[in-house]
Design brief:
The chain is α/β, with parallel strands linked by helices. It is built from 13 helices and 17 strands. It binds zinc ion.
């Protein structure tokens, strides 16, 4: 064996005694207490250990532009317009440099798999795609990246965006997204995205149903098309802010409908808290969908980062565990079982959303292993615990020292 991670408290069974994880050729080859082999080792000291965090929804190439965009001037953030105004300045090198900084932040906070959402339109042509595709190659030592491409600025009214999506799918994008809120024909965009997904046999992951009221929700059409084309398990949506504004009975009915269709939901609490409720000056609406409640109705859900340091979210450190902590705080999640579920929405549930077949601490899977400074998943979420050690395919990629007190 090449390495043993000893005394690992598995996130899947934190009550059980810690185990040793044996690694050879980048894969997990043994999981048992007291593994008797001569090999270099890393002592997890009984801490929480999982198979790496999974970021299902992040915008790398438009991160870190807050300082380039016009400042916010009133209650309406005008984020789309402020980003759109500077997109023509994105070169491949510039997008790569900013995206790399964000990606490195994600890696340092334990992400080992990622689905970046890359926007394509005439303003950026394929420069965003080229930058993120280069990152995928250059950071393969630390993280597996699957590109999701989408039209941020309309599709039915933007033929160039359609051509670029087709080009990106031909060049290996593994998922297609959407942003129907910015298309004069929501249904037209959604139908076209389903057509492209079927043509190229890729998963769907749409921005959907941001907004301040439950009116005109697009989820019904998404569920209908998912069922019609038998794509349950291959369709996800992000945001769903409108669902947080529904009366509880209607929300429960909708949750069951989404579960039956097999559509997954990603909460993006940082952006939604920042962008929603801008029509209000007091008692400001939170706009964050309660993904724990959706999970309890059978929906698969994830929690992700979305935007970092741009007009949509001018805050952020790329920590997924912090996103789960934020989600729990905002949606008033405190029961240990429900906090544990929030942790699953950064790990197993996110992996399921992305249809990853080789995820988890199990013999035969890649040795992607993260040791977190906590004893249980619920403690990690509650205390915003830090990842201390990260391995990608059995090679250490990150070490973070614990803070120490220097007593007098
Ligand atoms: Zn997004």
């Amino acid at each position: 064996m090449d390495l043993v991670v000893r005394n690992a408290r598995l996130a899947s069974a934190p009550e059980a005694p810690p185990v040793d994880i044996g690694i050879a050729d980048g894969k997990i080859v043994a999981i048992q207490p007291g593994l008797h082999v001569e090999a270099p080792s890393c002592d997890a000291e009984g801490r929480l250990t999982c198979a790496g965090l999974v970021e299902t929804h992040i915008h790398l190439e438009k991160s870190r532009i807050a300082d380039r965009c016009a400042p916010e001037t009133g209650r309406l953030p005008m984020a789309m317009e402020r980003v759109s105004a500077v997109k023509h300045t994105f070169t491949v090198e510039d997008a790569y440099r900013r995206a790399a900084q964000t990606l490195e932040g994600c890696i340092k906070f334990g992400a080992t798999r990622m689905r970046p959402h890359v926007e394509l339109d005439g303003g950026v042509e394929m420069r965003t795609f080229d930058a993120v595709a280069a990152l995928k190659r250059d950071y393969a030592w630390a993280i597996d990246i699957e590109l999701c491409v989408f039209p941020q600025e309309g599709l039915t009214n933007n033929p160039r965006a359609d051509e670029l999506l087709v080009e990106a799918l031909k060049r290996g994008a593994r998922a297609i997204g959407a942003a129907p809120n910015f298309d004069p024909d929501h249904a037209g965009q959604i139908r076209r995205v389903f057509d492209l997904a079927r043509e190229f046999d890729v998963d769907i992951d749409m921005h959907l149903d941001s907004g301040n009221s439950p009116d005109d929700m697009d989820i019904h059409l998404v569920c209908e098309l998912t069922e019609k084309y038998k794509l349950g398990g291959r369709v996800a949506i992000g945001h769903g802010c409108k669902y947080s504004t529904m009366k509880v009975d209607g929300f429960h009915k909708l949750a069951s409908r989404i579960a039956d269709a097999g559509v997954a939901v990603t909460s993006l609490p940082a952006t939604d808290l920042f962008m929603q409720g801008r029509d209000q000056t007091d008692n400001v609406r939170r706009g964050v969908v309660d993904v724990n409640a959706l999970v309890e109705h059978g929906v698969n859900c994830s929690i992700s980062t979305n935007n970092v340091l741009n007009p949509f979210t001018p805050l952020g450190d790329c920590s997924l565990i912090r996103m789960a902590n934020l989600q729990a705080n905002v949606c008033q999640i405190g029961h240990p079982k429900r906090l544990r579920e929030c942790f699953a929405m950064l790990t197993e549930r996110s992996a399921r959303l992305m249809n990853l077949k080789d995820y988890g601490i199990a013999v035969g899977n890649p040795a992607d292993i993260v040791v977190i400074d906590a004893m249980t998943p619920e403690q990690a979420v509650a205390e915003n615990a830090a990842p201390l050690v990260v391995f990608k395919r059995g090679v250490r990629t990150v070490t973070r020292a614990r803070a120490e007190l220097h007593r007098p």
